[in-house]
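Hi V.,

Quick status before I head out on leave. The structure for the redesign project is tokenized and pasted below; the design run finished overnight.
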């Protein structure tokens, strides 16, 4: 439905911040189709790897290279 609640974003930002500080993460994988609706490089403390976008880009590149 495209509804993003501020408290949900704040929760994810808190988790990402903790993981960056405690675990040293350098990026986060958005492995669920709904996560890019909530997270992106502008609101995350670390880069976001959107698996859906990565797959789409790879498929388009493969098609165009043929």
């Amino acid at each position: 439905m495209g509804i993003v609640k501020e408290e949900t974003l704040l929760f994810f930002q808190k988790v990402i911040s903790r993981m960056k500080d405690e675990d040293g993460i350098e990026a986060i994988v958005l492995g669920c189709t709904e996560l890019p609706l909530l997270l992106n490089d502008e609101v995350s403390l670390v880069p976001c790897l959107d698996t859906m976008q990565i797959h789409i880009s790879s498929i388009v590149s493969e098609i165009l290279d043929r």
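Above is the designed sequence. Residues 6-64 form one domain.

G. will cover questions while I'm gone.

Best,
W.
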